[in-house]
Amino acid sequence: MTQQRVHADGQVVVGPPKSAASCRVVGLDAETVRVLIWHHERQEEVRATAGAEWQDSGFVFTTTDGAPLRPDYLTGRFRRLMAASGLPPIRLHELQHGAATLALAAHTDLQVVHAMLGHASIVLTVDTYVSVLPEVAHEAARETARLVLNAASALGRELSV
Length: 161
Fold this sequence. Notes:
The longest helix has 21 residues, at 30-50. This protein has helices spanning 30-50, 71-85, 95-105, 110-117, 122-129, 134-154, and strands at 4-8, 11-15. The chain contains 6 helices and 2 strands. The termini are far apart. It has a two-stranded antiparallel sheet.
């Protein structure tokens, strides 16, 4: 089931995703899969406790009776967690910027990051969400210098100061 749930005017509105690019596969690493399996096992325990009160909504993250979480609950919960962390405040949506930046720092191809974010244009991904971490900039400088020095060496030319 592909749908979008948003909080608007005090109501949860359910509808289709805002664009075709919003319908995409989400790749998961082994650790995330392990955590999701653990969560599912805990959710099955909660389902057994709820008995006939359980709503089989089909959602991964639910209330204790199986109902889907409200988008505004998630936003509020994120704000409280940010405040408790002592970190500078950010909006939930800004995690997308961080995910894009970290993916690039992990040497993920820009086209893959663009697809992960579901943007219509790769230019939007680059202009809006991608910042260069200092570590990545330094590594790029080292790798570029290595290529130049290797090329000079292959030509029998010594580069010196």
